[in-house]
């Protein structure tokens, strides 16, 4: 017995929304090659380095304003965690980048692929500058480095979203698959 599943407005109109401006054919999604049970790994991991490295800007500002050593230590931990999680996200993202041609063909793909290692490099320099300064409030230049890292992640994060949402890289296809959504019920 099959029971048709209700589809959302988005699912019903996904093919129309995926068309490029001036193009009447829908862009077909290209599934991620780095996936677990069909679920792309890269989007599961990327919130962590973004959250850690952008939060470090807030803790740097708090350290400068309050002079409390807690905030300086928190910044170091956040930056270290951002680098480690960023390396993991980058490794998985590199698999998709080098195995999905569309990702390499798009300018936003290049910006995403080459800008993120630059952001991690800035974060590594930032962490090295803090190495022997436990509990000290970061200098203005160090806070600026944290801000530059966060700003660069904003740009590269936007580029990654463009790849996924506009160019359909790392997502499952759409269109026909939504026309036949049925749920099998076992009796």
Task: State the helical fraction.
Answer: 55-70%
Overall geometry comes to elongated
Instruction: Please give the radius of gyration in angstroms.
Output: 21 Å
The unreliable regions are: 13-24, 175-185
Classification by helices and strands:
mainly alpha
Order of helices and strands: EHHEEHHHHHHHE
Read across the widest sheet, the strand sequence of neighbours is 1-4
Strand content bin: 5-15%
- How far the N terminus sits from the C terminus, by CA atoms, comes to 8 Å
Give the overall average pLDDT.
81
What can you tell me about this protein's structure?
It is a single chain. This protein has 187 residues and is mainly α. It has a domain at 48-167. The protein has helices at residues 9-12, 14-17, 42-45, 47-66, 69-99, 101-105, 107-129, 140-166, 176-179, and strands at residues 2-4, 35-36, 39-40, 182-184. The strands form two sheets. It has a two-stranded antiparallel sheet with strand order 1-4. A two-stranded antiparallel sheet has the order 2-3. Mean pLDDT is 81; it is low at 13-24 and 175-185.
Structural features:
187 residues; mainly alpha; two-stranded antiparallel sheet; 4 strands; 65% helix; elongated; disordered C terminus; transmembrane; membrane; DUF2231_TM; DUF2231 domain-containing protein; transmembrane helix
Quick take:
The chain contains nine helices and four strands; from the N terminus they run E-H-H-E-E-H-H-H-H-H-H-H-E.
